[in-house]
Design a protein that fits this description.
Blueprint: H1 12-36, H2 51-86
Helix pairs in contact: 1-2
Length: 98
């Protein structure tokens, strides 16, 4: 469970379920790509996914990447701010920087 959401929060179990499902997406897309992707020396007669299934895979992957990237950026920005306030690097107006 994310640290920002207390265990006793409303819908905590459901949030956990959604996050678990999101993680399963990442593990499921690779085998789908291997089975239905156009790579791996497939012949001309090979049929991939139906368009609706392909859109589902693309949408799921996009949702997963958006979530992970958003979380990563939030962590990075917090860490960067922390580094900026504790840095010993001279600032622009600092005489040592000139």
């Amino acid at each position: 469970m994310p640290q920002e959401i207390p265990e006793d929060a409303r819908a905590a179990k459901e949030i956990r379920d959604v996050l678990t499902s999101l993680g399963k997406i990442a593990h499921s897309l690779g085998p789908i790509r291997n089975a239905y992707g156009s790579g791996h020396g497939r012949g001309r007669n090979f049929r991939g996914l139906e368009p609706r299934h392909a859109r589902l895979a693309i949408g799921a992957a996009s949702t997963f990447v958006d979530f992970v990237l958003d979380r990563h950026m939030a962590l990075f920005n917090w860490e960067q701010k922390d580094k900026d306030t504790t840095s010993n690097t001279p600032k622009k107006n600092d005489k040592a920087a000139k």
